[in-house]
Amino acid sequence: MYFCTEITNTITWIGVNDRKTERFENYLPLPNGVTYNSYFISDEKTCVIDAVEMGSTSTFLDKVVECLAGRKLDYIVVNHVEPDHSSGLKEVIRLFPEIKIVGNIKTLGMLQAFSPDFPVENFVTVKEGDILELGIHKLTFAMVPMVHWPESMITYDLTDKILFSNDIFGSFGTLDGGIFDDQVNFEFYQNEMRRYYSNIVGKYGPQALNALKKLSGLEIRFICPSHGLMWRKDISKVISLYETWAKLEPEIEGVVIVYGSMYGNTAKMAEIIGRKLNCCGIKEIKIYDASKTDLSFIITEIWKYKGLFIGSCAHNNSVYPKIEPLLHKLENYGLKNRYIGIFGSMMWSGGGVRGIQAFADNLKGIEIVGESVEVKGTPKTEDITRLEKVAEEMAAKLISDRI
Ligand code: FEO
């Protein structure tokens, strides 16, 4: 046996840690890796819940074969067709050509779109509330469209009260020894889970809330997502966190200051704002240079804190190229429940501050704090006063929210 990964005496984690892939979906950095979780159910019928990404198939199939111990694999449930879960399916079908592949009607269309030679005759279509009998275990299914794709569904084991939640409750980060919430320091996974949520699912908060509503009546002993930690001790904690993120509510008091700066002037302004915020009693302040830090890390911090300053120098009468994608993402995600401050430098016609202002004016549910501070060249004494004033105003708003 690879190592002890039993969830119960009949259900085993057979996922794979991927420490090789540089970028998830080919754009999100994976400094801490990622897992593709999969689960084996041993019963009168054998069943795997979700496959893994193609590059990890060899290890995954070794585990499947080991769990089968000479039996055949009867079913694989495809909760979600995105290739991090389904691209390994081809190899599963090659090894077990008689396998029944379980999904909903949208699943089938997507599998065929990715693989024109997909064996339709092996497909078993399920809909909301259907039950798949494996023997002692009875699996039922619920549709959770757009968390993360239109065909996304979750599987619930009525016997052991296990929720196979796919992308919901998933996180980046490999499982380095511990696999359950009570076996690790959660702080690391909380950040990686928020980064997964905010960057992958973030646009679909209302749909995520609908999914949580479906779960609210269920007795859940284990949550087994398709990435990262499994949950058995503090299940209400992870559900509550997810609800906070789906509502786009900040977790704690604090401010993200993100800037784009060509010659260091906008960077200086960020430092002045940060120092003043701290002098006003704000302890959690994160300053990021958007030219260096990948946006996915900045976005997860924006999800965490209520305060946000965005700074940009002018570039071709517009926003700096490294800030532009951030604005696009936040607009696309419908950022709300935040205080936003705006600053930046210019030399002749400006454009950086003007562009951020236009972005913020378009957002519903945010509050622009104080004056948008634009400085010609480097900040002078009077500019520093203006920056400090807007920082004071941000701090006052955050502090008044404490009560
Ligand atoms: Fe983990 Fe939407 O795939």
UniProtKB/TrEMBL annotation:
Query: Which terms does the record give in the GO molecular function aspect?
Result: electron transfer activity; FMN binding; metal ion binding; oxidoreductase activity
Q: Which residues form the Flavodoxin-like domain?
A: 255-395
EC class name: oxidoreductase
A Pfam family for this UniProt protein? ODP
Xref: CDD domains: flavodiiron_proteins_MBL-fold (cd07709)
Listed A to Z, the keywords are: Oxidoreductase
Family the entry assigns: In the N-terminal section; belongs to the zinc metallo-hydrolase group 3 family.
This chain belongs to the protein called Nitric oxide reductase
Q: Which organism is it from?
A: Fusobacterium necrogenes
The organism's lineage? Bacteria, Fusobacteriati, Fusobacteriota, Fusobacteriia, Fusobacteriales
Tell me the gene name.
fprA
